[in-house]
Amino acid sequence: MAVVIYPGTFDPVHNGHVDVIRRARALFDRVVVGVAQESGKEPLFTVDERVEMLREAVVGMQGVEVRSFDGLTVEFARRCGAVAIVKGVRVGDLEYELRMAHVNRRLAPELETVFLPTSPEYGFVSSTLIKEVARLGGSVDGLVPEVVRVRLRRRFGGS
Amino acid sequence: MAVVIYPGTFDPVHNGHVDVIRRARALFDRVVVGVAQESGKEPLFTVDERVEMLREAVVGMQGVEVRSFDGLTVEFARRCGAVAIVKGVRVGDLEYELRMAHVNRRLAPELETVFLPTSPEYGFVSSTLIKEVARLGGSVDGLVPEVVRVRLRRRFGGS
Amino acid sequence: MAVVIYPGTFDPVHNGHVDVIRRARALFDRVVVGVAQESGKEPLFTVDERVEMLREAVVGMQGVEVRSFDGLTVEFARRCGAVAIVKGVRVGDLEYELRMAHVNRRLAPELETVFLPTSPEYGFVSSTLIKEVARLGGSVDGLVPEVVRVRLRRRFGGS
Amino acid sequence: MAVVIYPGTFDPVHNGHVDVIRRARALFDRVVVGVAQESGKEPLFTVDERVEMLREAVVGMQGVEVRSFDGLTVEFARRCGAVAIVKGVRVGDLEYELRMAHVNRRLAPELETVFLPTSPEYGFVSSTLIKEVARLGGSVDGLVPEVVRVRLRRRFGGS
Amino acid sequence: MAVVIYPGTFDPVHNGHVDVIRRARALFDRVVVGVAQESGKEPLFTVDERVEMLREAVVGMQGVEVRSFDGLTVEFARRCGAVAIVKGVRVGDLEYELRMAHVNRRLAPELETVFLPTSPEYGFVSSTLIKEVARLGGSVDGLVPEVVRVRLRRRFGGS
Amino acid sequence: MAVVIYPGTFDPVHNGHVDVIRRARALFDRVVVGVAQESGKEPLFTVDERVEMLREAVVGMQGVEVRSFDGLTVEFARRCGAVAIVKGVRVGDLEYELRMAHVNRRLAPELETVFLPTSPEYGFVSSTLIKEVARLGGSVDGLVPEVVRVRLRRRFGGS
Predict the structure, then answer these.
(1) Which domains does chain A have, with CATH numbers?
(2) What are E128-150's pLDDT values in tens digits?
(3) What is the interface pTM, i.e. ipTM, of the complex?
(4) For E75, which residue in chain B has the nearest alpha carbon?
(5) Is A126 a catalytic residue?
(6) What are the Cα distances from residue C84, in Å, to B109, C7, D2, D82, F138?
(7) Closest approach of chain B CAs to the CA of C115, in angstroms?
């Protein structure tokens, strides 16, 4: 049974993430979504909130599981028994992702990195943009799961 | 059983291709390498020669099969019962590959495209460069399977 | 009255082009679509056919005119009394377009180049891809105006 | 009458900005330069200083107005009655700008984004580089309006 | 004494090339400009014409020599006793140049590739664009040496 | 005697840096490695530690010297009597480096910037990645000089 992980900060999860999860699941038997407890910068939501929103966003998807982790991504992948790390990719961030893939391969040669192309309709969406728009009072309808929309409104107010 | 195709012109196959095939095979049950009969430009080797070299290059790999095809890549994928199209990707050709992925998704929404990062040691290798170096009498040792090295020498002379 | 030109080969026109024309027209009083008679490579359709298809594609748009031209784009722009050259732009072809813009500015300093971002849903469409898909018998529904779909089918057969 | 906005942080304005304003004004009837009160990071100059320097930099240009704003750029554009947002673009930052354009279009579908290519002689200039050079005591002559040169010197000393 | 080569097709030489030669000469004792006899596509000028124009363009520069060559660039470099291959580089063509550098290093590990950044004022100039503009009757004043301007006019007519 | 500088933050030095130093030394008579005392962000190691690690990393290389500096890079270059600034370059960070090169040329027109292509095997390595991996307890064997490996372990623990 082929297991893959889909790691990220998910601060918060948006519809582009959900799309990648669904597509990864069509290719592999099990997808473990890994929520990194810490990233470089201060997150808007706690790791528990981020996990909770993700769980609601993937409710009903068989073979998808959400967990938090800290430490190296490759160690998390090994604990999950994964054969690969899945990443969504769009024009403009491949360089960074390729570097990470090479580092990870060096740390864990048995582990592949697999890139899934981001759907054109979500190609411009990122968690940073979502937060910025919400902070300034703009609408994020259709870009994030309902649970995220509600929580962002609670945080920032707005429509 | 998850089947994927790995399509290309393979004029000729080089070690970067072989590396992608090996890694795709580690992730999926079966990999069908699809040799496109015609590409935009006049190939150096006939489709039969290209298939023959590929078969020698993957000899001994279980679950890997080499076939030629014409027509749309997505139709070939369907005939193979594939869940995804595999492409190697390196910095600098992602834009084109992403466009093709979006076109293919439109033609066959049930089919995914999966990008595997090219190994750094083959990141600079391409069939075009291989042919150019061989034509000018340079050595392609270590960049192509032995069968290809021999055939290129037969064509162009050189070491 | 601000006039702009939108030059290209349009071999054939696709929905991404039509989208740019419509958006340019919302910004400027008059848009002259300029069909370059010759490009570097052999076109699929004659310049008359390309003009004809474009005229059908923009039927009913006020302030839009289609003309063919040869020679320098900046000379065509001057003959039209244009203040700017409009180009659609997507990630991955900006470098070339910026170079052309600098050359054109040197040839005609009074003329601006204006880039309009391609809509995400057409970001992957190009005339070359359209022809390739049609040639191999794939469907281009929804990617080109009806008149183009019909003509491509007449040329290549297919659905 | 076609109104456009040209938004930014302008911390501080440099000659590349002034060049874009002049060129936007040649295409549209009125250009409202919008100075964003807050950006992600701590600015060097207050919003009032930034507005003041811009006003001096565009003195004598008819149909150009400088205002500060907070909140969403698209809301500012609406308040100004603008048909488009103007952005200068150079190789290397298009990806980010295209993403913002798609987000803004989603928030305000009636609003276009228009990219003007940066002049080659200012292609390397940015507010960040200007501040870095000034901070280290280098000369920014010819890269910024006189008023900015004077203020930077007052801040950092140097020639 | 450090010798470098500066290889290319130079069909024809333009002022960006001359700028790189001058700057390479400031760094190394001797610069051998290598004119490749054949490139992938049919040149506009014969190799003798290209050499002749280059020689006029560098007249008076001490330590600069122009020669034609065929075969591998690295073999030419070795025959010249060069320590490095010099290439001009601008945003947008680095990927290709880096690949060539890695191939050349593999073929001749003792040989370096050195990239000099193209001056912003020539960043948009290329031999292909020069020929296109001249063919369509546009002016190339200030973009090419006088000898090239005269020859292009003889070929294509125009100002 | 041709002197060049190789400036950076080196927080900490890694094997990609050492590779560039060795190759720059093959081209020029003397290489002065310049350790910038301050960069934008808080460094992990003090400038004295960074100089010390570099000195150990280049021990035994004739004609290589390590110094710290503050202020403008071009002023440091002048104090060293350098003819050029050397930078390693890989796909994905050229835009920034080209901008810096143009700024530096404006500040010091007599000074060249020379880019050396990063070796493929170090193309993915950066000081930031090294620190991230070490912080999370991963192995950086083979990516950094021995002295750096030891110091990182002292800081972060791990293997």
Answers:
(1) 3-128 (3.40.50.620)
(2) 989 999 999 999 999 999 999 99
(3) 0.91
(4) B138
(5) no
(6) 40, 11, 15, 19, 55
(7) 19
